[in-house]
Design brief:
Keywords: Apoptosis, Cell membrane, Cell projection, Cytoplasm, Fatty acid metabolism, Hydrolase, Lipid metabolism, Membrane, Transit peptide
GO biological process, one term: fatty acid metabolic process
Radius of gyration: 22 Å
CATH architecture of one domain: Roll
Distance between the termini: 67 Å
Helix content: 10-25%
Number of helices: 5
Membrane topology: Peripheral membrane protein
EC number: 3.1.2.2
Number of strands: 8
Subcellular location: Cell projection, Ruffle membrane; Cytoplasm; Membrane
Bound molecules: ligand 3IX
Length: 230
């Protein structure tokens, strides 16, 4: 029988050493009360006059696969050998579902997904909501919560929906579950996407990739579909 990792001495007994600390950088110089933490709604809370999201009339039908938005995208591209190859489908309303299979290339600790990779999966899933609003928007803020470790080999079932829209700001939320759409929640995110023009990519991206993307008829068609959005 294989010796357990505990008997190999792998079970850690050490604890982080700690000592009382002051949160005042220079306690001797402190005068008056400590500043109070910021209050009121945070940047991920929609303002009171935000609107409910509206599904675009030309949005893909519920259940329809969305396909990659860019073939070299680390999140969804098929020309990225070590990417996540996340597969997304349109859902009801302004929602989508997606699946990501955690592979050995995605490890952070032995046999476990890297937290940054899981954040990427959440970001990509949230970004795919663009297809349902038919706007191009980029991540401005992404707040992640890691609830359970995610082992290699897991199929992470993600779902995301837009909760509110205020001018160019799109408020959205996503969840990733282990093993199935009803499985235990492993990761969550709340995010704020900001609508941009296609020029955002043309002005900021490296020219080599921009030229190649615009020369690709499929990519050109995808970009045009967003550009003609009223
Ligand atoms: C030619 C190739 C084309 C390729 C594209 C192809 C197809 C596209 C089609 C479909 C796409 C489909 C899926 C996409 C999937 C993507 C998944 C991954 C998504 C990403 O991974 S994407 C990369 C990471 N992402 C960035 O690389 C952004 C860097 N960043 C910036 O580029 C700017 O920072 C920007 C644009 C965010 C804002 O800049 P800006 O100047 O345009 O806007 P401005 O500052 O005026 O803000 C307007 C209002 O948003 C509020 N606001 C802004 N930023 C905020 C923040 N961080 N927190 C809280 N509120 C914020 C302001 O407070 C104001 O609010 P208010 O209206 O109330 O005043």
């Amino acid at each position: 029988m294989e010796p357990s990792l505990a008997r190999c001495g792998w079970r850690a007994t050490a604890r982080v050493r700690s000592a009382p600390v002051s949160n005042v950088p220079n306690p001797g110089a402190a005068s008056g009360p400590a500043p109070s933490p910021p209050s009121g709604p945070g940047p991920l809370t929609p303002p009171a006059d935000a609107a409910a999201p509206v599904r675009h009339p030309d949005a893909p039908a519920p259940g329809e696969p969305l396909g990659p938005h860019y073939e070299h995208c680390f999140g969804c591209g098929e020309a990225q050998p070590h990417g996540l190859r996340l597969r997304a489908r349109a859902g009801e309303g302004v929602s989508i579902t997606a699946e990501f299979t955690v592979g050995p290339d995605h490890q952070g600790a032995p046999g476990l997904a890297h937290g940054g990779v899981l954040a990427t999966a959440l970001d990509e899933t949230l970004g795919s909501l663009n297809w349902l609003l038919r706007v191009v928007a980029v991540t401005g803020r992404l707040q992640t919560e890691f609830v359970r470790p995610v082992p290699v080999g897991t199929v992470l079932h993600l779902d995301a929906r837009v909760t509110a829209v205020h001018r160019r700001k799109i408020y959205c939320t996503a969840t990733g579950r282990l093993g199935g759409p009803e499985g235990p929640v492993a990761v969550r995110a709340d995010a704020l996407f900001v609508e941009v023009k296609v020029d955002h990519f043309i002005d900021n991206g490296r020219q080599e990739e921009i030229r190649a993307a615009m020369a690709d008829p499929d990519q050109f068609r995808r970009v045009r579909a967003f550009e003609v959005n009223p």
